[in-house]
Amino acid sequence: MREIDPKLQIAILRVLRDAAGAVGSSAVAEGIRLHGFQSSPRSIRLYLEEMERQGLVEPARRGRRGGRAITPRGLEEIQNALVAERVGFTAAKVDTLTWQMTFSPTSRRGKIVLNITLIDAGLLEEALDLMLPVFEAGLSMGDYLAIGFEGERLGEFDVPKGKAAIGTVCSVTINGALLSERIPSTSRFGGVLELNDFKPVRFTDVICYDGTSLDPLEIFIKGKLTSVRQAVETGRGRIGASFREIPSPALPEAMRTLNRLDRIGLGGVLLVGRPDQPLLDFPVPEGRTGLIVTGGLNPAAALEESGVATMNFALSSLFDFSRLVHFRQVKERLAKGDLGSRGAVATPDAEEGTDRFALPTSLLTEGGPDASHHSGSSGHRQPSFGRRGA
Question: Residue 47 carries which DSSP code?
Fold first, then answer.
């Protein structure tokens, strides 16, 4: 009998669950890297043999590829895993994907982090009608998405039978883009952010990443705590968002990077704080500056609010930026059958425009005259910044 680290066993089971079918040891070895583990395919094969004896996995029932699939008992094991083994799982995955991301805001090439939302395939057009206004209002994480159909793959995610997958850019992409410019960031918590006239007012609920085994926004969406559609229509409502911190000395370079992301359609920062000062009443340690980033799953929240059943997989996988589709092109491409593996869409060149994030001279001056938390002149993502005004 080969003893398996409980955390590694849960990671293997999660990879098999997300694959939605039988996979081999090499694919599992690659998949667990996203969960912060390293193991050879040979070791994984031995682990899988032991897990098969436990009834957690089973051999492929047909086909020549072989591999193993998760069993109902394996799914139950994920749900019942000791909390002590799962706490901090999300924080570790955020850090792992941040490091593995290859996208550069300068070259506009490489892989970003993708969330996956699964829906019944027959509801795809209805789902897009509900999701695209969230993009138009600027309450999504960037301007791009991806579509996958039955039997296709989005990143490392296999789309199961009878389903369509909608990939949205995960807010952790901000972390990776900053890291590519040598700016480290810390993800503190995800929460429900209240808006008034599209301006962030306060967090009403938060869950710290290092104290949870699940993605906070998945929890808030299934808990019916968001009102994204109302926010889109009126500017007042509750959306998913998260809180980041960066080193204060890196703030000028971070502003330049955020503006570059904004221009290429990967903007998502709603507020930039002042060094060493609270942001929306949340304290920030000395030498740090807070950022509030919109949630990548906000379009999926609009589906749940409308009664469309979803399965959401935050932090799902890495995905090549060049394969994303601009939200204003997606319905036309769908009508032409030019989505998923049926066709690739090259991302457009960056648009010229005014930087949204300004760095006032007083910002880095101790005891500056303005204690507000806004970036630039407004510090929030107004519709007039192009999407509704474009």
Answer: H
Residue 376 tokens, joined: 């630039």
Q: Rounded to an integer, what distance in angstroms lies between the CA atom of residue 372 and that of residue 374?
A: 6
Residues forming beta bridges with residue 163, ordered by sequence position = 120
Scanning the structure block, which residue is given the tokens 């300068």?
106
Give this prediction's pTM: 0.73
Question: Which amino acid does the sequence have at 58?
Answer: E
C-alpha closest to that of 251 among 272, 266, 268: 272
Name the residue among 160, 186, 169, 196 with its Cα closest to residue 243: 186
**What angle (nearest 5°) sits at the alpha carbon of residue 319, between those of residues 317 and 322?**
170
pLDDT tens, residue by residue, 338-354? 776 544 444 444 455 55
**How many degrees, rounded to 5, is the angle at CA 202 between CA 260 and CA 235?**
70
**Rounded to an integer, what distance in angstroms lies between the CA atom of residue 158 and that of residue 156?**
7
Would you say 145 and 327 are in contact if contact means Cβ atoms under 8 Å apart? Answer: yes
pLDDT tens digits along 102-156: 999 989 999 999 999 999 999 999 999 999 999 999 999 999 999 999 989 898 8
